[in-house]
Amino acid sequence: MPYLLAIDQGTTSTTVLIVDEKLHICGSASQEFQQFYPKPEFVEHSPDKIWQSVLEAIGTAIARARIDARQIVGIGIANQRETTIVWERKTGKPIYPAIVWQCRRTRAACEALKAAGVEPMIREKTGLLCDPYFSATKIRWILDNCDAQNSAQEGNLCFGTVDSWLLWQLTQGESHATDATNASRSLLMNLEATAWDDDLLALFRIPRVMMPQILDNRAVFGTTRGVPGLPDGIPITGILGDQQAALFGQCCFDQGAAKCTFGTGAFLLLNTGRKVVHSKSGLISTVAWKIDGEVTYALEGSAFVAGAIVQWLRDGLQIIESSSEVESLARSVDDCGGVVVVPALTGLGAPHWRSDAHGLICGLTRASTRAHIARAALMGICQQNTDLFDAMTADLGYGLTRVKVDGGACVNDLLMQMQSDLLGKELIRPSVLQTTALGAAMCAALGAGIYDTKEDVCKTYEIERRFAPAKTDDWRMTTRQQWKLAVGRA
Predict the structure, then answer these.
(1) What's the pLDDT at 489?
(2) What DSSP designation does 249 have?
(3) Which terminus of the chain has a lower count of CB atoms within 10 Å, N or C?
(4) Are the C-beta atoms of 467 and 420 separated by less than 8 Å?
(5) Which of the four pLDDT bands, split at 50, 70 and 90, describes residue 225?
(6) How far apart are CA 195 and CA 213, in angstroms?
(7) How confident is residue 451, by pLDDT bands cut at 50, 70 and 90?
(8) What is the pTM of this model?
(9) 238 to each of 9, 60, 206, how far by Cα in Å?
């Protein structure tokens, strides 16, 4: 029986799935890795530790699946997007730690570009805003601070998001490539042409020679070579950015279909078909996927902190010992007791785009407890997502009636019910919550020829639970007003 290996390389951990030809999970493993915060607003990873987490998760997943690695016929990759790595072409050695998508160190550079009046051109070409979130200013920062411009121009350096870094490692440096979804997050790819843009490369002074080749999402990106635990010659047949992989894994193949991922951050994506929808409400346009030369686009809103606020309750405030405790603690009170938490620990993403915003807890009284703070933190996640839905409604001219949900935090039934209540919409949770990794597996299955079409893949999708709203419009209006006041103070 043929098997597929799917790698979901996320912000705080790597998950690997082994799935059979029917996309049933036969084995899985997750491996956390360390986060580094060397200065305020700085967030970094070790590229080598990322790769080590992938190797460890691969070995454990194969062992748990009890298969022979020679049965693996294709590898799919989903990855944290925008996170930027620059390495030496000859040695494969990174010249600086990975600068994570959450990092805000290039805020001043982005403000300078806005002041110079170039943001409209950037947005027209890329569908993105000029924000530290995206890769281009991160590349520029590394080249400047490592005195590496000349080396880059001479072709000695490679840039890649995490997908390119993993591909380089899996193929022992034989493949330097990326896919259209990850490339679309760089501020350097022309969204219509799905190609690197000379004007943008010149604007950021980034040599084309250091850029990876852009391929369709279903392609043979390379084959394994010298990977511990894997035989040589396994093709890597599918790569997507993690949020596009989740959209794919949720089978949102029809125009108008949407999903919201509750992970480290929260990400709302809506399939807009073959049309690029340029947002007027603070959202961004991006590639959903490109298959057989045909591009599907998406409208996206991102909240930088979602599940990460629960980690902060655990590690920062230390009011819980494990993330799984937050639901029971939040359920121990009937409401937030007037407490509002704005989870702007790394600024505010869409639709606000305020990199100078800070996290906020307000409405505290002598009656406030850690349970009220925990519940308000969950509500803060929901409020940010509701901002995204409101912006999407303004852009589209109509509201969504339902949305599919996934990500690690969506196991929290209370969080899902709170989100449904605040939106006034039905939420649909699939039976497989590792939708990002599953989306990578689905794409790899297409690339490996196990399935012929996206519609064939969609037949494997199953719903586990639906959440229906149970609150009144008056409650919703009052709760939203409290949030907007708090955001104004953040």
Answers:
(1) 86
(2) H
(3) N
(4) yes
(5) very high
(6) 9
(7) confident
(8) 0.86
(9) 14, 22, 27
Name residue 406's amino acid: D
Alpha-carbon torsion (452, 456, 462, 463), positive or negative? positive
User: Is the preceding omega at residue 94 within 30 degrees of 0, hence cis?
Assistant: no
CA angle 93, 140, 218 (to 5 degrees): 65
- Dihedral sign (CA 182, 188, 190, 193): negative
Six token digits for residue 134: 């995206």
Do 160 and 178 contact (CB within 8 A), yes or no?
yes
Widest CA span of the chain, in angstroms? 64
112-130 CB burial, b ≥16 within 10 A, e <16: ebeeeeebeebbebbbbbb
Nearest to 161 by CA among 76, 88, 86: 86
The one-letter amino acid code at 206 reads: I
Q: What residues are paired with 270 via a beta bridge?
A: 258, 299
**Cβ density class 214-253: b for 16+ within 10 Å, e for less:** bbbbbbebbbbbebeebeeebbbbbbbbbbbbbbbbbbbb
The number of C-alpha atoms within 13 Å of 399 and in the hemisphere containing its C-beta is: 10
**The tokens 């505010």 sit on which residue?**
348
- Give the amino acid at 87: W
Name the phi and psi angles at 257, rounded to 5: -75, 145
H/E segment holding residue 273: strand 266-273
Burial 284-319 (b: 16+ CB within 10 A, else e): bbbbbbbbeeebbbbbbbbbbbbbbbbbbbbeeeeb
* Beta strand 72-79 pairing with 235-241: parallel
pLDDT tens figures, 230-274: 999 999 999 999 999 999 999 999 888 889 999 888 989 999 999
Give the chain's length: 490
Is residue 65 within 8 Å of residue 27, measured between CB atoms?
yes
Q: Give the distance, in angstroms, between the CA of residue 330 and the centroid of all CA atoms in the same chain.
A: 26
pLDDT digits (tens, 9 = 90+) for 10-29: 988 999 999 998 889 999 99
Beta strands in 103-233 (DSSP E): 157-160, 177-179, 189-190, 195-196, 213-215, 218-223
